[in-house]
């Protein structure tokens, strides 16, 4: 039990990353009721965009100086791809049967994977991601790595900024109106196409931040890292309540804690030794999802999706 504080901290850091990605899923679904399964690959391209910025900087540049530029480069890459996907893949299918945009999302996901696989040098193997040359820091019985410190700072800031944006800004209120009834919102003078594109862009920025958190934590990025991270983030969005921004982050934290604790302690249970370890972490994520869907189908904080039947 002396490792419990460390495992709880690991779960919070991991869950914050899942929550940042999950916000993109839940914002898009809350407005257009589309499950953007390509969002995991938007997360992935944000990581490669940030890495590319670092590689073009002069050799020996301090990562503390490079990190803001990496954030801008990763966010710009993710936003451009997300906006392109919304404009050319999803918008033409907005009035089509729901299966059509879902298939388009899966196809786009595979296309983005192969694009990075073929265009980025040596993307077939994980690429080394730069690490902050300081740490770890010891706080009580918890060791905080440099990548975890970035997550600890970035995730709360992103959530506060998003909450203020949605509540206080004119665009944020327009997003809420579009989520409730896009037809009525358009009649009231709201440019729903712009609002939907804004939701995609915000989700992409959060995905890029999560990608940098991932790279700093694990020290690498790969062309296929978006698949598993995207599935877990979608699970987090459902756990918290699809369409609920705060629920997405809560779902991510719950999922991260469950994964960290199950990975660390499942092998200590008699007869369950073979179910421990990192390889089983996706299994426990979906076990948790099934339990929540059975006990509370609307998610932990409840869905926020308008009935448009």
Q: Would you kindly provide a written description of the structure presented here, covering whatever features stand out?
A:
This protein is mainly alpha-helical and 309 residues long. It contains 11 helices and 4 strands; from the N terminus they run ααααβββααααβααα. It has helices at residues 4-32, 39-56, 63-90, 99-119, 146-168, 170-180, 182-187, 192-218, 225-240, 245-265, 281-295, and strands at 127-128, 137-139, 142-144, 220-221. Strands 1-4 form a two-stranded antiparallel ribbon. Strand 2 and strand 3 form a beta hairpin. Helix 2 (39-56) packs across helix 9 and helix 9 crosses helix 10. It is globular, with a radius of gyration of 19 Å. The N and C termini lie far apart (51 Å). The model has no long low-confidence stretch (mean pLDDT 88).
């Amino acid at each position: 039990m002396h490792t419990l504080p460390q495992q709880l901290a690991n779960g919070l850091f991991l869950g914050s990353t899942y929550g940042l990605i999950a916000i993109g899923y839940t914002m898009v679904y809350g407005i257009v009721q589309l499950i953007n399964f390509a969002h995991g690959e938007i997360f992935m391209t944000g990581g490669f965009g940030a890495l590319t910025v670092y590689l073009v900087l002069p050799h020996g540049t301090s990562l503390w100086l490079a990190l803001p530029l990496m954030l801008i480069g990763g966010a710009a890459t993710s936003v451009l791809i997300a906006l392109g996907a919304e404009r050319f893949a999803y918008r033409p299918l907005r009035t089509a049967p729901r299966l059509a945009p879902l298939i388009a999302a899966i196809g786009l996901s595979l296309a983005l994977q192969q694009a990075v696989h073929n265009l980025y040098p040596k993307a077939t193997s994980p690429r080394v991601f730069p690490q902050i040359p300081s740490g770890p820091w010891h706080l009580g019985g918890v060791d905080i790595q440099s990548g975890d410190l970035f997550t600890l700072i970035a995730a709360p800031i992103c959530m506060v900024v998003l909450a203020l944006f949605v509540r206080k800004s004119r665009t944020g209120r327009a997003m809420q109106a579009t989520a409730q009834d896009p037809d009525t919102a358009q009649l009231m003078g709201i440019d729903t196409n712009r609002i939907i594109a804004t939701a995609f862009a915000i989700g992409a920025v959060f995905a890029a931040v999560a990608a940098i958190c991932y790279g700093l934590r694990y020290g690498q990025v790969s062309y296929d890292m978006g698949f598993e991270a995207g599935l877990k983030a979608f699970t987090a969005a459902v756990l918290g309540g699809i369409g609920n921004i705060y629920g997405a982050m809560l779902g991510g934290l719950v999922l991260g804690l469950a994964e960290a604790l199950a990975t660390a302690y499942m092998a200590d249970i008699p007869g369950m030794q073979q179910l421990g370890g990192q390889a089983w972490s996706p299994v426990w994520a979906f076990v948790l999802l099934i339990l929540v869907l059975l006990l509370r189908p609307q998610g932990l904080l409840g869905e926020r999706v308008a009935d448009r039947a």
